[in-house]
Amino acid sequence: MTVDALTRTDAVSEEAATEAPVDSKPQAESTETAENATAATEAGDAPAEDKTETPAENVAESPKPKRGRPKVATTAKKTRTVELILTVTGTADGEWQAELKNGSKWVAKGLEIPAAAVSRAAKELHQDLSGPIDEVINAARELQAAKVAQLEAELEKAKLALAELDA
């Protein structure tokens, strides 16, 4: 039975009890009255004695959302997750530092790490990580090699200048 059927039945029963017998009214008029009673009941204008609600009427008239998150039936275990943030930063000179944060608390800040250790760690973690990190390390290596070559050239000039002064 639907909510409309329950409401319409109650309205017709009430109307039949308060008015003259149904046989004395024309059929079309009694149908209109029943529809008006149904509309009045849905709008909340029903008489006080029609206020007894069945559970089906209560659900149809005022669906109240439940508070909180809806419960979803899952079979998965809820595991506690720990948020650790490891940040590894490097410079073009090849200097690497690490910082570790547990939630909002800093565990370690500014720890110096050798480039070789960063490269090994990246290879252990994932191939997609090791490629870009190795490129940065190789670029820093080339920069340092160029700097060493420049300093060696300056050292040779300084040695020649010193040898000329001694002679």
Q: What order do the SSEs take from the amino end to the carboxyl end, as H and E?
A: HHHEEEHH
Strand content: 5-15%
The CA-CA distance between the termini, in Å, is 119 Å
Mean pLDDT: 75
SS-based class? alpha+beta
State Rg.
43 Å
How would you sum up the major sheet?
Answer: 3 strands, antiparallel
Instruction: Tell me the helix content.
Output: 40-55%
State the helix count: 5
Strand order of the largest sheet: 1-2-3
Name some characteristics of this structure.
about 170 residues; three-stranded antiparallel β-sheet; 5 helices; rod-shaped; alpha+beta; single chain
Fold and architecture overview:
The chain has 167 residues and is an alpha+beta fold. It contains five helices and three strands, in the order αααβββαα. The chain has helices at 3-18, 27-43, 55-61, 115-125, 127-166; strands at residues 84-90, 96-102, 105-113. A three-stranded antiparallel β-sheet has the order 1-2-3. A hairpin with a 5-residue loop joins strand 1 and strand 2 (96-102). The termini are far apart.
In short:
The chain is of the alpha+beta class and 167 residues long. It has five helices and three strands; from the N terminus they run αααβββαα.
Q: Which helices and strands occur, and which strands form pairs?
A:
Layout: H1 3-18, H2 27-43, H3 55-61, E1 84-90, E2 96-102, E3 105-113, H4 115-125, H5 127-166
Helix pairs in contact: 1-2, 4-5
